[in-house]
């Protein structure tokens, strides 16, 4: 019995030593990249933001006002996204969450895009939206749904998704994202508006288009 107890304790001790290694992992990225610096003089960023002295923190650090106000929609795609993230609500730092308000003009859309660091959950406050996302290769399966006021839809992290206003009037939605800095990659802007521009012959082959069409699209999206 003593030997069995000793073996049992040995197993528990081994588990105690190895479990932290088994569950350890690198922290999630909070920006596109974080290149290491050889000297402290070159180190000006951390993965996220520097923390304010707790003694200097006030209630205003956790407060943002005005999200109830409609935003003008002037973009070519017919939508305006107003973000509340760690850049304008400092108290979000390290909390892993952010928020956006999206205003859609009639026939407007939030075009296909992806958030590299966040899952998104969206609720419609006004109007009717057609929403959807596409799964990764090789299936590229499309999931779509028509949402009305009060309806909720989830876009998994990293997957390309979109929303389109299919109602007769303007639409409004709010979305929460599981990162203080989720990032956004709008597909058309990224591919055809890259700076410097991607070689048109590469894009022509990838999209099976005439290179002249690619050059025209790059001109439209040029910053």
From TrEMBL:
Belongs to the germin family. Gene3D superfamilies: Jelly Rolls. It is found in: Secreted, Extracellular space, Apoplast. Residues 65-215 form the Cupin type-1 domain. Mn(2+) binds at residues 113, 115, 120, 161. One of its GO terms (molecular function) is manganese ion binding. Keywords: Apoplast, Disulfide bond, Glycoprotein, Manganese, Metal-binding, Secreted, Signal. Residues 1-24 form the signal peptide. PANTHER family: GERMIN-LIKE PROTEIN SUBFAMILY 3 MEMBER 3. May play a role in plant defense. Probably has no oxalate oxidase activity even if the active site is conserved. GO terms for cellular component: apoplast. InterPro entries: Cupin_1 (IPR006045), Germin (IPR001929), Germin_Mn-BS (IPR019780), RmlC-like_jellyroll (IPR014710), RmlC_Cupin_sf (IPR011051). Oxalate binds at residues 110, 115, 120. Disulfide bonds join 34-51. PROSITE patterns: GERMIN (PS00725). This is Germin-like protein.
